[in-house]
Amino acid sequence: MTFAASLGWSLLRALIVTLLAWPCCHWIMAWIDRDESPRRAWRITAIVVPFLYPELLIGYAYGWLVAGFPARAECACSLLMWLRIIPVGVVALWLTPASSVTASAFHCRKLSLRTWSDRRDWLRLWLLGPVARVLPSGILMLLVTFQQFELAALLKAVSWTDWLFVQQVGGLTLEESLKVMWVPVAGQVGLLLIALACARTCRRDIGDSKLERQIPSRDFVAVGLVVLSWFVFVIVPTFGLCAGLPAGIAQLLTQQLRLAGLARELIGGLSISTIAALIAYTACGVAIRARAFRETPVGVVLTGLLI
Predict the structure, then answer these.
(1) How many Cβ atoms sit within 10 Å of the Cβ of residue 269?
(2) Which of 68, 86, 137, 221 is the most interior residue, by most CB within 10 Å?
(3) Options 1.10.357, 1.10.3470, 1.10.150, 1.10.3720; CATH of 3-306
(4) Cα 114 to the center of its chain, rounded Å
(5) Do 258 and 82 meet the contact criterion of CB atoms below 8 Å apart?
(6) pLDDT tens digits for 93-105?
(7) Is 35 helix (H, G, I), strand (E, B) or coil?
(8) Can you tell me the distance from the alpha carbon of 146 to that of 81, in angstroms, rounded to the nearest whole number?
């Protein structure tokens, strides 16, 4: 498969998965909003934890089920991506404040439509109100799915990031890689700029985000999705890991060279992740304290950048 074909399929899959995950994010967000007790923090934690579970373990847990079946691998990868990006949309919606156009103002303007000029004005309010309120979270979900690498590679599904990795292993030079990378990278940067522009139209001192989320009750769906996420991303991979862990440790202890190599890899990985976490934490603190971002939900865009 060519790079253009893998890029196009990755984009199409990301669009479909994001659109299918979008209603679920609203239902879960409404489920969170309806709880004002201290349990609300536990609900948010329960939603986020499955997303933070290592993709490597998830891929190994389900990779053997789709090995040798490309169509089955694509379906499994799409389903896992769909379930995995829901927490991204929920957190993004949670971080984004209310729109500068309140729901009541938007409804009143809709009732007063008379001329084409009124309709253009209503369209402008619609873009500055409901669209600007939800577009940043949708863009972040799209980007997380589009740039997926590890899960797609382990399941042997098509992905432009995996295609690029395989070609580099096969001898593709850095200069040639950069030539083909600039298109998806430029597109992702452009989408992040759009998300930032939309987020800056929202104000924390106008309206209430809960009033603008007029969503029907779907608590049973929200709870079911959270339980399903834990089962698929946490329980099943952990059970598979624990089942083979004793034999693996026993075998590893008899191979001193491999054990030493594993220790070096763990130390290196922990060092890099700690440094990256400190840099990200510092960058978030600086951005939040910056005067230009005090009234904007910069956390939404930073979430996409850090993911």
Answers:
(1) 10
(2) 137
(3) 1.10.3720
(4) 41
(5) no
(6) 887 766 666 666 6
(7) coil
(8) 10
